[in-house]
Design goal:
about 45% helix, elongated, mainly alpha
Amino acid sequence: MLTKPFNEDRLWKGKIQSANYKKPLSKEPMNLLPLTYHNGQYLIPGKEYNKMVQYYCHIDLAETYTHYSQKYWEGVEKRKLKYRQLNLVSDIVLA
């Protein structure tokens, strides 16, 4: 732990300190991948791994994508049928 100096006003200050810039913003800690075995092929289970899984892997997320995909492909089939009905040549006139 750093302690505050006694005569802080008499200490040498660089250009950055004398310019009185604002302190940098404190950000949320990053959730990084934990250490891995064999060049990243196997994750090491532990506290960091569990935290990452909890943060990034939502069960609902896969269900949402499945529902979205089903709706999309149902729409594709409807559009195909509509296109075929509009562009169907029912009466072929042979001359």
